[in-house]
Task: inverse folding
């Protein structure tokens, strides 16, 4: 890691590296500077470094480096200049988006461009093989190679920026802008997977914002600006989810918006609520939740009627018709009839969630059908006048389906109304946020409702009806469809009917099915048979034997007495054990009481110390608050007039109260200014209206005068134009007569020019053909040279490869030969060393024999020994003395204390010191120890000899003390 004294030096170094093409090194230099702890103070140079850094990251697609650098830069300028961070992030987003768009346009250009090397071939062979093997088109390959990497990087850029800007009150606007751009990216390129991930990321950010409420720069959702940004982001998320038809994600987005509204306890603007209920209608329509779809349309109608001043009568009628038809489309019976408890619980939870989304707070313990139902909604629409705003066809359809009793003519009268309703719909011009209203959406449900009403009314009149007659009465569906509809209605206990296909008839009956009347028959039969059996065969009572009972009574009394005695002893033992336990418990309680008393005394001391510390802290805090209060009074109210200061009670007010008073005063001034502006605007409106009323007749008079003047001027101009036209006609006739004599010359000239240009055209065409032929020939020659060059390069590469293999083989053989020679040389040296050791051993053996021969020589007999005297004592050891003549005295051997023989070897006088030293190092015959020189002698396996051994004088060399080479010994 390179260190720089100033950031400017690092920037210059990075630019130099970029100029020479080392972009990775330049990026690393800037990354080291940004992440270094030496440059924690913000300066303008760091901003320029960050601009260059993000440009390199985008150019090299290094998202990880960009994220690390932006995080470090956020730490640097969070409290100093957060605008710099905003500019850097905007530049980063702009570069990433621009690169992705350029890649997209480049891929489209490559798809349309002519990319053919051979002008005679339509397609290259490799392209054909790739298309057949890969199974993908050229556009798919170009997208994968060019577009996909940049789109991945752009998506990573959005995620990085959102992660850096999350939960930051100073960058809320940039966070919202980035989220909107990410939504538009997913919408433009149909990225459904990334959209789900993006929604989950934003959802987690809001959850963390509510979870960690002690963050330093946490946004405050109670502020109108912050709340507006968060709401706009969620509504944009909802719009994109519905545009991509991700209905599950759209429902979760609606829940996010509702949770945000519940969190801040503030309803958004009516324009946003229109979008909210409009998207809810689409979601409920797709999920087949007709009841909640109708309630959402009802809420939407109320909002449009109350807040949309530009709503026309036609648009209002269309929305009201949609509300009434949505309410009529709800199934008139309860589908939960006969369902299991688990299904009912799930349905109840689902209904509670959807009811909360449309603004109904239901009690979980009560049934939601008591509040939200089809009948309640229809009565509400009639009472609030929604039905009165609907179209006449819708009103008539409502009366037919809900109030009329026409069992034979109901379907025939409903069918033309449905035909006219299905053609009504379109986009509402005065309410852009409302989805496109198409009344044809409700036609299938209305047909089903008409079928159910007809079956219900027919069942009240008839008991039996032929299938053919019933099919003719219902022209909407085939009888198989009618049968399915009726099965669902019978299951929900709405109607009671049976279809007998064998007789070809439909049987209508009561709502009590056959299984309900027969379910207790078997139980009643069993109870009756049991009673009859009791009457026929009454139970026989057995007589008790008194004697047997008296005999066994004594044994029973004895057993009970023994049990009582045993129980008494057990009770006594338990009492003793209980008393002992009570005594132990009293002792433990005494010990605990003393300990608690001691702990209480210590806790009292700690409490008093803590109270004194708290009082001191409160005193200091009170002083600081008083100083802050005075400072706020001076700073906040110094710009206020004396009137504002006199009316405010500033003596007992705290700092927060003072700030709140100043805020209220500003709000009051702003409201007064708005009132004055409204009054002035109203005055200006009256003046403008009066001015226009006064100038209206003047404008009409001026307009009539201009009409008269214009008519006169038009007639005059028309007359002048006619005269000029006549004059031009006469002149043109004269000019024609004058030029007619040159017509023949003109034809001759024209023929000559045409023939000359035709010959020129033929010549240019021939030259063009020759040039194309020459170009094709050049292309063939270039391709031939390229093929020959490729063949030569491949041959040369194979030759070089072969030479390299031969060289490697030769080196390997040389290495093996050298290893073999080394092994042979080592074996020879081992053999020479072995022979040398043998010669030394033989020389030592001869020397040893000579020494033994000298030691075993008989000593000299004395000259005269008297027979009566005792033999002389053995001669003692006398060390050798140096004689002048150089001869050494020889003494007989004598054993020392260790049992070793002392040997005196005769040596020349000149080398006596060498001989003595060598004798000292000579090994002993008894101990078998070697001297230091012999210890350093290598073994026969090592293949080498020691110089000291080679220099040792041997017996064969005469032991003169001079060094004799081994080959001369």
Result:
């Amino acid at each position: 890691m390179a260190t720089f004294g100033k950031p400017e030096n690092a920037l210059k170094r990075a630019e130099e590296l970029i100029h020479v093409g080392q972009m990775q090194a330049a990026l690393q230099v800037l990354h080291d500077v940004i992440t270094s702890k030496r440059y924690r103070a913000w300066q303008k140079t760091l901003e320029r470094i960050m601009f260059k850094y993000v440009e390199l990251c985008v150019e090299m697609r290094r998202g990880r480096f960009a994220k690390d650098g932006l995080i470090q830069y956020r730490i640097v300028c969070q409290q100093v200049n957060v605008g710099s961070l905003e500019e850097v992030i905007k530049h980063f987003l702009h570069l990433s988006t621009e690169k992705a768009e350029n890649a997209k346009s480049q891929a489209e250009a490559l798809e349309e461009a002519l990319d053919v090397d051979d002008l005679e071939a339509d397609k290259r062979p490799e392209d054909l093989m790739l298309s057949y093997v890969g199974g993908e088109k050229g556009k798919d390959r170009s997208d994968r190679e060019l577009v996909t990497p940049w789109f991945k990087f752009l998506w990573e850029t959005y995620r990085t920026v959102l992660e850096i800007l999350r939960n930051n009150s100073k960058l809320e606007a940039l966070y919202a802008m980035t989220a909107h751009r990410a939504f538009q990216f997913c919408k433009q390129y149909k990225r459904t997977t990334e959209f789900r991930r993006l929604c989950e990321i934003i959802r987690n950010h809001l959850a963390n914002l509510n979870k960690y409420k002690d963050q330093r720069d946490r946004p405050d959702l109670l502020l109108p600006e912050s709340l507006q940004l968060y709401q706009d982001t969620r509504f944009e998320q909802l719009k994109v989810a519905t545009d991509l038809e991700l209905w599950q994600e759209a429902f979760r987005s609606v829940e996010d918006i509702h949770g945000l509204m519940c969190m801040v306890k503030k309803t958004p603007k009516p324009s946003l609520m229109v979008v909210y209920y409009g998207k809810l209608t689409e979601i409920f329509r797709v999920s087949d939740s007709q009841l909640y779809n109708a309630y959402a349309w009802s809420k939407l109608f109320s909002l449009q009627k109350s807040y949309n001043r530009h709503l026309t009568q036609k648009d209002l009628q269309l929305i009201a018709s949609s509300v009434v038809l949505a309410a009529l489309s709800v199934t008139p019976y309860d589908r939960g009839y006969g369902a299991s408890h688990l299904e009912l619980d799930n349905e109840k939870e689902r209904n509670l969630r959807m009811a909360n989304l449309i603004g109904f707070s239901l009690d979980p313990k009560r049934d939601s059908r008591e509040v939200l139902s089809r009948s309640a909604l229809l009565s509400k629409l009639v009472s609030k006048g929604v039905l009165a705003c609907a179209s006449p066809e819708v009103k008539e359809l409502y009366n037919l389906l809900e109030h009329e009793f026409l069992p034979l003519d109901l379907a025939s009268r409903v069918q033309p109304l449905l035909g006219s309703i299905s053609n009504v719909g379109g986009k509402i011009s005065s309410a852009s946020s409302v989805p496109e209203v198409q009344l044809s959406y409700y036609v299938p449900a209305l047909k089903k409702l008409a079928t159910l009403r007809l079956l219900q009314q027919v069942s009240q009149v008839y008991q039996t009806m032929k299938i053919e007659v019933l099919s003719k009465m219902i022209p909407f569906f085939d009888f198989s469809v009618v049968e399915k509809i009726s099965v669902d209605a019978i299951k929900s206990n709405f109607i009671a009917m049976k279809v007998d296909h064998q007789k070809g008839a439909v049987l209508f009956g009561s709502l009590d099915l056959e299984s309900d009347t027969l379910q207790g028959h078997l139980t009643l039969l069993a109870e009756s048979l049991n009673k009859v059996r009791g009457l026929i065969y009454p139970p026989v009572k057995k007589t008790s034997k008194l004697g047997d009972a008296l005999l066994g009574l004594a044994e029973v009394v004895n057993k009970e007495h023994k049990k009582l005695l045993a129980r008494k002893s057990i009770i006594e033992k338990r009492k003793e054990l209980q008393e002992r336990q009570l005594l132990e418990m009293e002792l433990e309680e005494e010990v605990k009481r003393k300990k608690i008393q001691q702990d209480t005394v210590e806790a009292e001391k700690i409490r008093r110390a803590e109270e004194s510390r708290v009082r001191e802290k409160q005193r200091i805090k009170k002083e600081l608050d008083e100083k802050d209060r005075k400072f706020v009074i001076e700073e906040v109210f110094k710009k206020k007039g004396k009137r504002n200061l006199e009316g405010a009670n500033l003596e007992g007010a705290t700092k927060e109260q003072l700030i709140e008073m100043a805020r209220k005063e500003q709000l009051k001034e702003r409201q007064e200014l708005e009132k004055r502006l409204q009054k002035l605007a109203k005055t200006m409106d009256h003046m403008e209206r009066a001015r226009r009323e006064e100038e209206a007749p003047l404008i009409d008079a001026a307009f009539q005068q201009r009409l008269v003047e214009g008519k006169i001027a038009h007639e005059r101009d028309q007359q002048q134009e006619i005269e000029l036209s006549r004059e031009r006609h006469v002149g043109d006739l004269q000019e024609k007569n004058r030029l007619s004599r040159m017509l023949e010359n003109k034809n001759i000239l024209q023929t000559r020019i045409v023939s000359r240009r035709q010959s020129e055209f033929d010549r240019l065409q021939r030259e063009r053909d020759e040039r194309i032929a020459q170009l094709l020939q050049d292309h063939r020659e270039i391709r031939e040279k390229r093929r020959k060059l490729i063949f030569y390069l491949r041959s040369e590469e194979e030759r070089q490869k072969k030479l390299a293999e031969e060289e490697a083989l030769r080196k390997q053989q040389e290495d093996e030969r050298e290893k073999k020679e080394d092994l042979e040389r080592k074996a020879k040296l081992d053999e020479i060393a072995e022979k040398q050791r043998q010669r030394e051993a033989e020389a030592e053996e001869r020397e040893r024999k000579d020494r033994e021969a000298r030691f075993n020589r008989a000593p000299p007999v004395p000259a005269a020994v008297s027979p009566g005297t005792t033999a002389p004592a053995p001669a003692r050891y006398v060390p050798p003395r140096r004689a002048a003549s150089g001869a050494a005295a020889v003494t007989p051997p004598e054993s020392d204390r260790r049992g070793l023989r002392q040997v005196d070897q005769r040596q020349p006088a000149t080398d006596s010191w060498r001989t003595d030293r060598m004798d000292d190092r000579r090994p002993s015959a008894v101990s078998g120890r070697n001297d230091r020189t012999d210890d350093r002698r290598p073994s026969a396996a090592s293949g080498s000899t020691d110089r000291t051994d080679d220099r040792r004088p041997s017996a064969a060399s005469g032991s003169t003390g001079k060094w004799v080479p081994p080959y001369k010994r």
